[in-house]
Amino acid sequence: xxxxxxxxxxxQAAALLGRTAGDLQAALSRLGPEQLEPLAAxxxxxxxxxxxxxxLLVCGNGGSAAxxxxxxxxxxxxxxxxxPGYAAVALTVNTSTLTAVGNDYGFDEIFARQxxxxxxxxxxxxxxxxSGNSPNCLRAVxxxxxxxxxxxxxxxxxxxxxxxxVDGAVVAPSDHTPRIQEIHIFLGHLLCQLLEAARRPx
Length: 202
What we know:
It is a single chain. This protein is of the alpha/beta class and 202 residues long. The protein contains seven helices and five strands. A five-stranded parallel sheet has the order 2-1-3-4-5, with helices on both faces.
């Protein structure tokens, strides 16, 4: 099969851009109190955790693992303000821990084991799952409940099993995985802005 010509690729790119941007704009337009109320509650619990010497733990799989690391990077580094780093940890980055726990206890335990090891009662756990049904995120939430952590989820579709198991579910209003992931990082940036604004000196 012959490769498309440059002009044909430009036409395809333009059509794809229009459809994709339209889909994303439509999904973003559906954001409202159902998402913003648990997002504000998450911000409040993270602020309280930091006041008490706790931290935010974040985890997810695949693209959601990358988004977990992205959110943590904005908090430990900086988002918009020049300020001290905030206490946040991505549970997706230590390959030795992930592979040791996965090998010895199974992939479903890779986050729960870390929550048990480093999570405390003043901490907050945020799980990212586009389906809301990731077994290792479900196990992490269950372990967090045992340890007294507050739990939140950035979820998609109908929220899945996690929706009823976390203290606050922020469900992206889409059934399409790429749009859900794009909304999750949008919400992650909103969270960072909320946290920075709340800690900004008067």
